[in-house]
Write a structure and sequence with these properties.
three-stranded mixed β-sheet, GH, four-stranded parallel β-sheet, globular, TIM Barrel, hydrolase, Hyaluronidase, glycosidase, Aldolase_TIM
């Protein structure tokens, strides 16, 4: 599960911080969207942004993977016998890597005025030594130890720590404190709040609280690092491995799409696998038109209206009391949500003052 920092994608090109909330479509569905075709989706009416011609990489969002950004070092199939670009980051030719990365950026972002999201998604290994102490990734620990004399000690932190966030919060705080150098070099945070088929054995509240824990920790890190913008990677299918899609139920639409918006993220990135995409096109269209599109449209309009009415368009709207409760719409279809300004409060950017985000003017103190 991708989380925050290098464990998640990192942004290195970003427009102005206080842009309007946006949802970006990063499904590899180019083949589904032939104009006037039976699987074409009109994303504009749902306030969903796409790359031109529905390209996976384009003018709004670009993702760089291991094989498309520089000379990323890793072990093919996690085998010590098949190192690529040195295998370990310690063995990578940094100068050659940066030269190749520059070329790759120019190739994938030819427009010098590009103002979308450019994301580096490296997942073969993790930036902290201790994070590689599980499953196949141990090859990076083992080879690092072989490279040096002596023993390197680390602390194993399980991927499941977020699922027990409320009892292990201190562990995660310490873990992310070690990642501060990554956050300081970043211009945004990209937490993943995916819910897979394996989570369906849990109660809806557990899944909801899992997503909430990831978002709360991301917000904590954001506040510690100059209010970094937050773009949550989410989806509306549990696992995309078959020819038919298994779409989120109403509880998980609330947990994975509505909840991030209620908690003030700057945007959502809807992601999916390309597996069996041609067979999934019609189902995805029906789901977007029936539930996902109307939900995002209503929540986007509510965010904009709330910012204008309560925050003078200079702050985020956060749903009141939402941190400690279950989905606020248990008896209501989430895609029929109606905005109520009394349910929201403002979170102002630095030079603006709570509660209505009025700009703080520097001047002489008032006379007594």
């Amino acid at each position: 599960m991708k989380m925050i920092g290098v464990s998640a994608p990192l942004l290195f090109l970003l427009p102005v911080w206080l842009k309007a909330f946006s949802t970006i479509w990063e499904y590899p569905t180019e083949q589904c969207h032939k104009k006037n075709g039976t699987t074409y989706i009109d994303f504009k009416k749902y306030n969903i942004t796409t790359n031109s011609n529905f390209k996976f990489n384009g003018d709004q969002i670009v993702i760089f993977y291991e094989d498309t950004f520089g000379l990323y070092p890793y072990y093919e199939n996690y085998s010590m016998d098949h190192p690529v670009n040195g295998g370990l980051p310690q063995k990578c030719d940094l100068k050659a890597h940066l030269k190749k990365a520059k070329e790759d950026i120019k190739t994938n972002i030819p427009d010098e005025n590009f103002s979308g999201l450019a994301i580096i998604d490296f997942e073969r290994w993790r930036p902290l030594f201790s994070e590689n102490d599980y499953m196949k990734k141990r090859v990076f620990q083992n080879e690092s130890i072989r490279m040096h004399s002596g023993t390197l000690n680390g602390t194993n932190i399980s991927d499941d720590d977020y699922r027990d966030y409320y009892s292990k919060a201190e562990v995660e705080f310490n873990h992310h404190a070690k990642m501060a150098f990554i956050f300081q070099a970043s211009q945004a945070l990209f937490p993943s709040v995916y819910l897979g088929s394996s989570t369906k054995t849990q109660k809806p509240l557990q899944r909801f609280r899992y997503v909430q824990a990831v978002l709360r920790e991301t917000r904590r890190i954001s506040k510690r690092h100059k209010q970094l913008p937050i773009y949550a990677y989410t989806k509306f299918e549990y696992d995309q491995i078959g020819v038919t899609s298994d779409f989120y139920d109403v509880h998980d639409l609330c947990a994975g799409i509505a909840q991030p918006i209620f908690l003030g993220v700057d945007g959502l990135i809807l992601w999916s696998s390309s597996s069996h995409m041609a067979a999934r096109c019609i189902g995805i269209k029906e789901e977007v038109n029936k539930r996902v599109g109307p939900l995002i449209s209503k929540l986007t309009e509510a965010r904009i209206k709330c910012s204008e009415e309560l925050c003078n368009s200079t702050g985020r709207c956060i749903r009141r009391g939402f941190k400690n409760q279950w989905c606020p719409m248990p008896k209501l279809k989430v895609w029929e949500y109606e905005y109520n300004k009394d349910e929201y409060a403002c979170e102002c950017i630095r030079e603006y003052k709570f509660p209505n985000c009025i700009k703080v003017e520097n001047g002489p103190a008032p006379k007594k």
